[in-house]
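We emphasize that the prediction below concerns an isolated chain of 568 residues; any contacts that depend on oligomerization or on bound cofactors are therefore not represented. The input was used exactly as deposited, without trimming of termini.
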Amino acid sequence: MRFLIATGLFVVSLVLLLVGLGQRTIWAAPEESHLTLRSTTSVPFVLIPNQTLSARDGAVSLTIAAPSKIFVATGRTSDLGAWLGREKHTILEVDAKASRLSEKLSGWATSKVNPSGSDLWRSEVHGTKSLTIFVSRGSDNAVLIASDGAHRAPSAVDIAWRINRDVTQSTGLLIAGGVLLIVAFVFNSLALAKNRKTRGPRRRMPKPPQGPKYKVKRNRSAGPARGRYRARRGGRALGSIVASSLALGALAGCAPAQPTTSPSPSASAVVQATPAVSAKQLDRILANVVAVTTAADSREDKKTLKIRFAGPALALRAVNYKLRKLSSRTTPSPGIAESPVTFVLPQATTSWPRTVMVVTEDKASHSLPQLLVLIQKSPRENFKVWYTIPLLPGAKIPAVPLASAGSISITPDSLFLKVKPAILAFAFGDLINKGDSSQFASKFAVGSNPFFTQMSQNQAQVKASLKSATARFEHSLGDKHVESLATTDGGALVAVYMLDNYIIRAKKRTSAVTVSGQEKLLLKASGSSTGIKSTYGNMLLFYVPPSSAQDGIQLLGANQGLLAVKNL
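Result of the prediction step, given as a token string:
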């Protein structure tokens, strides 16, 4: 009996194992799903939007073929579309009914712009003739394909989606087959053990003589089945059961495993604001900024500096180059550290201009941490440094949103802050000039601020030292780019450029106004008989609390430099 059960279980387990292996091999679904397009249009750019990459399930890989150069960049779909603008390009789409790729022509301009090196790209890859890359479908990722922007884009594109196989059924069959195989060996072992125990070697004893016995004849068909014949009938029944189970298992397992499918995600009609840059983009931007700054500083070259600098940061550094050429004693402008990055606050937006605030610290030089304000004015322009502001000793930046979420930009005329960002430079200048009598005195908390104290004392000393001349101090907004990003408490970090004009006039014609140091270098004279106007630039970082807060405006960082000196 046990031998029959073991045999049946062995056969069933063997069938289950073979079917399970078949579903993993000969009946398995293909590993990848491919859509290929060989374009016949002659355009410099090909755009694969996120909707196309997400048309099917599975990890996406691209294989691109071209006669020569291949350029591939990834980025947000909206960013790639903004960069292309009116540029002539094709958009690859998936035709679900025909199960093929189709192309739609868009744009008409041909400016022959090279896409390489743009700050918008999350990644970029260069190749020749053939290139295969893996592409993420998350974060609205899209792909831009080109050669060099001036010639035709690669025409052969293959998109492959790796199919996630559902191996649940085959795994179940393999496990069930393995378990039954083990049970079959157990039954076989028990049967062998019993056989050895009950059918071992025995001595044959002679039988004693017996008398004749009367045998009653019985009808075999009428009597119940006994002995070995009954066992055989039971074995046949068991065999029928095993055969039926075997047939059912084979029929259940013959169907090949089908990949799980889910409805393709549809494109959202509302484009959510996301951070202007990702962490990898910012690392790449900072590395390039540091390289440009180092090259420009070493050659004192304003032209090189313009690649990554603009606005107040460019103006102050360019004047420093001029002073260094006039005198070797001039202290160079502080360098820019690439790392460590201790603070990042990107603007959350889908439009331009875009702003990013970042703090880096050069621990080797023991200099103060420096906040950089990077601005990208349009999709095809790279981020440029507009502000370089060393943080003041003891300054603490308030809580801000996570870099992965970004912060909203505050308008210059916002009424929800303690002071409008647009008039912040004038208000701070008025406070320097008038002190506690200023109309903005109650708005600021600068009692022990070192920069404010130095500015106020310097103006007072200048006035006190002049006996035959008069001094007037004017403070005004020096650049319209007042960059304000919201903090978590409803306030804002505001970077502003303030111009200081020191106007000194002689009271008498026989008197003269003398200058020294850097003012003397720029004036190229030791003084003037009529008067002198010295202009300084101040890049300032403020924390402006909301209008309902009790706290005053705090000055967190400042950078001052001489811009110009002229005779009146």
